[in-house]
Design a protein that fits this description.
heterodimer; A: 347 residues; mainly alpha; 14 helices; B: 484 residues; two-stranded antiparallel sheet; 20 helices
């Protein structure tokens, strides 16, 4: 088990390293840097001025070196210009001798966001906290709902209940967030339909989430994932229900509800656990769409703002966090699967 | 011309009927579900005189009511369509007018179904599809949009207005609004589904969007499958180092949140650097490799035939490949126009490449899993003993036997690609701003959603029904292929 864990974590770190480098490379391509130079030093500067600005601010070094600096494993650049020393790790106006040699993500220095004019780490945490709130409610709605639907559909395969619930799950998997969100807003908030039950914008939910302003975003994210988890649960439930030990229990005369709840349920929930954990990357997608649609300024919204405004440091920070969220959930799902399923023994 | 109502004079007859039938359907559906918990299942009891009697009264009755009301609902809907097609324009309201515009689609759909059901015994898996209700519904939804796209796009038979032209005075107007001065200018007299926030016809945009999706989604999925098959087969068949490296790469891409990837790949800055063109260079070579290996491994022992076939296939595919990657406005623009049959509108190549890129690792994993499972089969061992090459075994022994799950997944994946295209449009990435694809139209319509929901809803429902159709089709195919 320990060796498996070490190998798994090793692969994860390697993956994270590769992915962050890819993001770093793609966000630091020449046109992006030129854009940032123009937005920082003025839009009408000449090409020579762009080059000199880039050189002055440490952007002209080889990309691998800069990646090392950003990561915090390579000393940050310094530049001595007639006595005034500037550098990556030296905040403007501070004493260069006091500055640390390394300043990167590993040291907790995530840089400065150009859009929000504050440290990246603040924006990322703020976004994460808000998105965490959204995700919590999504999970509260989605997981029990999906499991109940899946178990009910799977306990009697081919019954009418199974047919109707399966159709409902297929419809929900076929409805991406931007479709269900738009339909929800049109039906429940518009003056054209006239129901006006909920709030079409979740901006007020950032401070004070109420039933009124948080229902639609939560339902929109939950709906898309729900169908998928329900279908997986159904598949695993139908498989368990045909197992020998269930037949034995039935032949012994155990009541049907008891068979489902006491004998089948536990084994049927192993597969959905993995699926729920692997849903996180998809949920991240949904979160970006829903936060944009409902104007909820969480993590996904931060991603869109950073990417849309060429805010390199913020985009890097957001990418690192999202990549790690995905990788850690994958790890948890792997370990949990082994833990839940005693038939799998890792040597 | 006056404003059209939704159902016109047809509504006086059919609307009450629809209401009654829908109510009956809802009641009987709920009743069957609730009764399925409590009552005994329907069983057949053999009588001494040789007949059988169905037992289980009330649940069976509710089931019958459900079936009858579904049938009645379908008949009423058919009434709307036929009524709209037969009655003169305007009498049957918006729905009738739309049904009339879609006449070629209805005819094509009816022909497809009649022919397919007639010859279903000779059509293999496709014919079997017509034995499953779910599969037929899915197929009908998919083919509806396919025909709408084809008849509406290149043939131009359905769209009522130009999807990009704004007509003054029709901004955000409700469905059925008359176009001012239409008969004099030779324009269609109404905006059937209203005007959007730039005063363009919503109905025509939805139809034009169907053509975009129908072109891109299946083709992008096919390319992704080519990548998946060409890399997944050796990974699953050989295992070992090849598998480790390829799986690591696939997991790398899979760990990327899709939207982040889109935001990184589909920006004007990245397009300037030519990265999408390089990716196209790599990704689009896989069909070529696949075609070459497929033919080569089959006719390896007949050099003359092999050479001719390989030359033909590789020549043709290679020409298409070069034509595809050589696009004006990108860094590869070398093919003279008289040799270049493929010119993509700006932005489409980038969108196409990124969608293929996102889909490839998933199809790789599926193919790899299937190859791992099938390589232990007896027919594989037999082929190995015969001395066939590894590629022959993979492409001519394993791949044909993996076709069932692959076809099912292909359908699902087209649906997923459609969703991805919508996502790109929704965030305004890649495709031109005024592009009529569904995602962009939803994006444009969402700003004023709570006041004017009508521009955003039709593309949303269009996307929903197409993806739903593909999912149902996949479900039907899976069910039927499992029956073998």
């Amino acid at each position: 088990m320990l060796r498996f864990l070490i190998r798994r974590i090793g692969t994860m770190l390697l993956t994270a390293l590769c992915l962050t480098f890819i993001v770093f490379f793609l966000t630091n391509l020449a046109p992006n840097l030129e854009k940032i130079a123009k937005s920082e030093a003025g839009a009408r500067i000449s090409d020579e001025e762009v080059t000199s600005w880039l050189e002055k601010n440490g952007y002209a070094q080889p990309v691998l070196l800069r990646y090392g600096e950003w990561l915090g494993v390579w000393p940050g650049w310094t530049r001595d210009e007639g006595g005034s020393v500037t550098g990556r790790c030296i905040p403007i106006g501070s004493d260069p001798t006091l500055a640390p040699t390394f300043c990167g993500v590993l040291q907790g220095d995530w840089g400065q966001s150009t859009v929000f004019k504050r440290p990246v780490i603040e924006s990322v945490w703020r976004g994460l906290a808000l998105t965490g709130k959204l995700m919590f409610w999504v999970m509260v709605v989605m997981v029990p709902g999906a499991l109940i639907v899946g178990v009910l559909a799977g306990m009697r395969e081919g019954s009418r209940l199974d047919r109707s619930l399966s159709t409902a799950s297929i419809i929900s998997t076929a409805t991406p967030e931007y479709v269900s969100g738009v339909v929800f807003i049109a039906v429940f908030t518009s003056s054209a339909v006239g129901l006006r039950w909920f709030n079409g914008s979740a901006t007020s939910a950032m401070d004070d989430a109420t039933f009124n302003n948080f229902t639609l975003p939560v339902m929109t994210v939950a709906l898309y994932g729900m169908g998928y988890i329900a279908r997986m649960t159904r598949a695993s439930m139908t498989e368990v229900m045909t197992a020998q030990y269930i037949r034995t229990a039935r032949l012994k005369g155990v009541a049907f509800p008891n068979i489902v709840l006491k004998h089948a349920l536990r084994n049927a929930l192993i597969a959905p656990f993995t699926v729920i954990m692997l849903q996180f990357p998809w949920l991240l997608n949904g979160v970006v769409i829903v936060e944009t649609l409902f104007n909820y300024k969480g993590f996904g919204w931060t991603l869109v703002e950073a990417a849309g405004n060429n805010d390199i440091e913020l985009l890097l920070g957001v990418s690192v966090v999202s990549v790690f969220v995905v990788l850690i959930t994958q790890l948890i799902s792997d370990i949990g699967y082994v833990y839940l399923n005693p038939r799998i023994r890792i040597s | 011309m006056e404003q059209l109502t939704w159902t016109g004079s047809l509504g006086a007859v059919l609307n009450p009927m629809l209401l009654v039938v829908a109510l009956a359907l809802a009641v009987s559906a709920i009743a069957t579900i609730i009764l399925s918990f409590f009552s005994a299942p329907v069983t057949l009891q053999a009588n001494p005189d040789g007949t059988v009697t169905a037992k289980g009264g009330i649940a069976g009755l509710a089931g019958l009511a459900l079936r009858v009301s579904i049938l009645a609902l379908l008949l009423v809907l058919l009434g709307y369509i036929l009524g709209g097609m037969i009655m003169t324009y305007g009498d049957a309201g918006i729905i009738g007018a739309i049904a009339k515009r879609l006449t070629p689609v209805w005819i094509a759909l009816a022909l497809t179904f009649l022919l397919s059901i007639w010859f279903k015994k000779h059509l293999g898996l496709y014919g079997k599809l017509f034995e499953s209700t779910v599969g037929m519904i899915g197929f009908a939804l998919v083919m509806f949009w396919v025909y709408s796209g084809i008849f509406g796009g290149p043939l131009g038979m359905i769209a009522t207005h130009d999807p990009l032209t704004a007509l003054s005075g029709l901004k955000n107007k409700l469905p059925g609004v008359p176009v001012p001065g239409a008969p004099e200018n030779g324009l269609f007299p109404h905006y059937l589904l209203g005007g959007d926030n730039l005063a363009r016809d919503v109905f025509s945009r939805v139809i034009a969007g169907a053509w975009i999706v129908i072109q891109i989604a299946p083709l992008a999925t096919l390319f992704a499958f080519m990548v998946g098959i060409t890399l997944g087969l050796p990974a699953g068949y050989y295992g070992g180092k090849v598998d480790t490296i390829l799986s690591f790469l696939a997991n790398l891409i899979l760990a990327f949140p899709v939207i982040l990837l889109f935001y990184l790949l589909v920006t004007p800055e990245i397009v300037d650097t030519g990265i999408p063109s390089y990716m196209a260079l790599v990704l689009f070579v896989f069909p070529l490799v696949f075609g070459f290996v497929l033919i080569n491994s089959r006719y390896r022992t007949q050099p003359a035939k092999r050479s001719a076939l390989v030359l033909g296939i590789v020549g043709f595919l290679g020409w298409l490949y070069i034509a595809l990657i050589s696009q004006s406005g990108t860094i590869f623009d070398f093919l003279p126009t008289w040799l270049d049959p493929i010119t993509l509108p700006s932005g489409i190549l980038v969108v196409f490449v990124s969608v293929v890129f996102v889909n490839s690792p998933t199809s790789f994993r599926i193919v790899r899993g299937l190859a791992m499972e099938l390589r232990t089969r007896d027919y594989v061992a037999a082929a190995q003993t015969r001395g066939e090459t590894a590629w022959y075994v993979m492409l001519w022994e394993i791949l044909p036997n993996a076709r069932g799950p692959l076809i099912v997944d292909f359908c699902l994946r087209i649906g997923y690609t459609t969703i991805l295209l919508g996502t790109l449009g929704f965030f305004g990435l890649g495709l031109p701003l005024e592009s009529p694809d569904w995602g962009s139209t939803i994006n444009a319509g969402r700003q004023l959603l709570s006041i004017y929901p009508h521009p955003a809803l039709p593309p949303a429902f269009a996307l929903l029904t197409l993806v739903l159709g593909l999912n149902l089709l996949a479900d039907g195919l899976r069910e039927e292929s499992l029956k073998d």
